[in-house]
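Q: Convert this sequence to structure tokens.
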Amino acid sequence: MELPTCSDRVLWDVWMSTCHLSAITVADELGLFSLLEKKPMTAEEIVKTCSLKMGTTEAFLGILTSLGFLVQHQGRFYITEVSRNFLLPKSPYYWGGVLRIAQEMLNMHSAIKEILRDSPLNDKSKERKIPGMVKNLMENKGDEEQARLLTQVLHSRSFPAALGVARWGDFKGVHKLLDVGGGSGCFCIALAMQYPEIYFTIIDLPVICNLAEQYIADYRLQNRIDTRALDMFKDPWPSGYDAILFSNIFHDWDREQCLSLGQRSFDVLPPGGHIYLHELLLSDTKDSPLTLTSYSMVVSLFSEGRLFTAGELDELLRECGFEDISVTHTYGYHSLISGRKP
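A:
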């Protein structure tokens, strides 16, 4: 028999990728990154300290090292800068909340099969698919612990990107900014530190606003950022703002709902006012990059949304009446799309 016409490495890579996330969540639960931050250790020392098995621990440490979360030097394991920034509980960028949620992820095979066979998302007979915690919060059924976890997840995932928006986005000339669905307030906090002349208001659900005020107080920005508790789809928005920001909001909703949010923004802004969308953008052909095509599938598992291309958001904003649409890469996979009301 002839050999196959190509290598099977890609299948091995995809098959073994199922171990990657679990390795990180287990390492986080064991406190491994904090342990190694205090003192780099050999595999034998890790086994003894954490009461683990030697053989499996070597494989476990091998995964974490291959992924770039640990580095080995003279037989000892050290944490990398990625782990130092995002996997230490004391870090302001700690991904602990995200990892906690990841431990409870659905069976992806069944979930993907279900949504592929589901009726179209624009079928009005279907109930909106909203993440359980978010749905409970919107119906005022969520407790503070749920809200705290959700806010922690979104804050840790978004704060570095918020600092990128503040560094690379153009907010010159803005005096008052309304952050719609602002969550923890991380974008307002980052922008307030970069633009001392701007005043900010966050609108979100009541329990989220309460938590946002705690984050705002941590940075002593109470005199620059306030909150208003309201439903962004149903309640009237406050007026008097010359800029409106949606950070990671549009990809959670279908196009019709995004169009509604864009139109409400256009109506409340004065001439010359700006809208800003912070989003993860797919390529024009929607087939790259791999991480974002995968994330778009995950988004569709839990909401009516999906990731957009730059062209799709350009078209949507122009349909609302905005012009001078621009796209600026800000941080990691993130971009800032802006438009102006004529």
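The longest helix spans residues 144-168.
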